[in-house]
Specification:
With 177 residues, the chain is mostly beta strands. Helix content is 7%, strand content 45%.
């Protein structure tokens, strides 16, 4: 009667009960929430910082620039807080959600080649791989004329060895430089 299913960690069962119930490690969650509750009101807003923090372990920046005649280069940069990772490929039986990068292109634009991604690190024997630290992806887009903006849809799940944050999906607009 204390077992429940959650999708916030990718879809698995947990034990509901007192903090002393074996099976769930709530201490990490409480530790991460404590600084935010005790911080002074004058503390800078974390979203303005360039580096990831324990409160916001993933920072994403998307930029675009002209890359030659009719080409635009879109760069997606992930910065992950120490100990955190996002999943690139998820092996059979693992409950994680992989990183997906989708380009929502304006009329007259098309992808040129594939998304250039660095090699991920092995994570499990099932074939799951991850990205850690700073990661950069690039994609060339061919356009009849340089667009004002290109939108990029990102879906991912960020975890460390103790907790998985809820899966995130966001659309970012890239203004051309």
């Amino acid at each position: 009667d204390k077992l429940f299913f959650t999708e916030s960690g990718g879809g698995f069962f947990m034990v509901d009960g007192s903090r002393l119930t074996p099976g769930n490690d709530y201490s990490v969650l409480e530790w991460r929430q404590a600084p935010a509750m005790e911080a002074p009101a004058s503390r800078p807003v974390a979203k303005e910082a360039e580096e990831p923090t324990a409160d916001e372990p993933v920072r994403v920046a998307v930029t675009g620039k002209a890359a030659g005649e009719g080409l635009v280069e879109v760069t997606v940069r992930f910065a992950l807080y120490k100990g955190f990772h996002v999943y690139r490929e998820v092996g059979a039986g693992d409950p994680y959600i992989p990183l997906e990068v989708e380009f929502l292109l304006p009329e007259g634009c098309a992808l040129e080649g594939g998304l250039k991604m660095p090699a991920p690190k092995p994570f499990s024997k099932t074939g799951t791989t991850v990205y850690e630290g700073k990661v950069e992806f690039t994609q060339l887009v061919r356009c009849g004329q340089q667009p004002e903006a290109i939108r990029v849809k990102l879906s991912y799940q960020c975890c460390d060895s103790n907790i998985c944050l809820p899966p995130k999906e966001e659309v970012m607009e890239v203004r051309m430089q």
